[in-house]
Amino acid sequence: MNTKEWFDQIEFAQNDICRVVAQAEHAEASTKLVKRTMELTSLDPSHKWTASETFPSATLNETDKMMSRMHYTRTCYDSKTESFKQVPGKGIQLIEPLWGMLRDPFDKWCNDLSLKMDNPPEASGQSKAHIMPQGYAPYWYTLTNEDAKEDSEWTSHGLPPWHTSLRPSTHQNDFVAFRSPQTIHIDLGSSYFGKWTADASASSGQWFYDIYHARGPSFDRFIAVELEVLDDNVAFEQLPPDLVGVYTLMNVGLSMDKGNKLNVIDMIKRVVKPEDFFVFKLDIDGAGIEEPIVKSLLEDDPNNGGASGLVDELMFEHHVNYAPMNAPWGNPQGVGDLKRSY
User: Fold this and answer.
1) Cα–Cα distance between 311 and 60 in angstroms, integer?
2) 123 pLDDT exceeds 80?
3) Contact 192, 209 (CB under 8 A)
4) What pTM does this model have?
5) Start-to-end Cα distance in the chain
């Protein structure tokens, strides 16, 4: 089952999502998707990809064809016009699809209806086994406009050409210099780097550090934003040495008010440039500010310098009211349902 089919049936399915996902057809597809994602994200961690590399081509398997896809066009810098222009070439990269309750169906939330498989991911309530970050996702590209077979010659993993780019700047004596890109992570709703309250399995900072450093350059900026008051000594004790000086803890609440110096969108534009690789995590347990942030991103025209064009990966936990997640989320009211998330 693909994302479109879930869109078409989610209004009905959301009223009993655990039982719907447990149906034989959906359980089989979910098992294939999670197993494939775990396979792709469990590559040898001793080999670190810090630059684009060429790997033997591969053909997509049947489960890969259930994934959603990101599509890319190719642009090059024209020094005569001092602007970018579209040139022949295109790319595609797989991304995990939207399906079910938008969480790992093998986690604990559906109790007896949670799916079962051999060697399952840890059912801690914080499983990320269904998430496939960019450095682990198969991709394909061509540098021509000729018809190419998109079902073959895929690169199974590594950094795609669109991971980062160089940004030109013309100097007074007419030579062009290029700015090196940065790798940036902003975590809204971070808690401590190594744990969330007392739960180490819920540590988003540690997870992003481990996952992205294994399949890409180290973070140049790591900005953690948390409203709950944290102990600075505890926060920095948990950091690995290479994040000291890179990691910034903003222990304040941000805003979506225009003109406020803590406006989320304005901060993103100050920190991130188009050539950077930017991973944005949004999980602040409150749709009151979460949805305005996402809405502002969507409305901020990427072709006009908008913030949406700066985000390479967005990981968003949308807190809405549906079983079984409404209990751990405090039964949020007036925030919509699972259909709204879709």
Assistant:
1) 27
2) no
3) no
4) 0.92
5) 15
* Exposure class string for 216-229: b at 16+ Cβ within 10 A, else e: bbebebbbbbbbee
Nearest one of 199, 220, 200 to 277, comparing CA atoms: 220
Q: pLDDT tens across 237-290, in order? A: 999 999 999 999 999 999 999 999 999 999 999 999 999 999 999 998 765 788
78 HSE (CA, 13 A, CB side): 8
Nearest to 100 by CA among 331, 328, 322: 322
pLDDT of residue 4: 80
Select the more confidently predicted residue: 82 or 35: 35
Which pair of tokens denotes residue 179? 């700015």
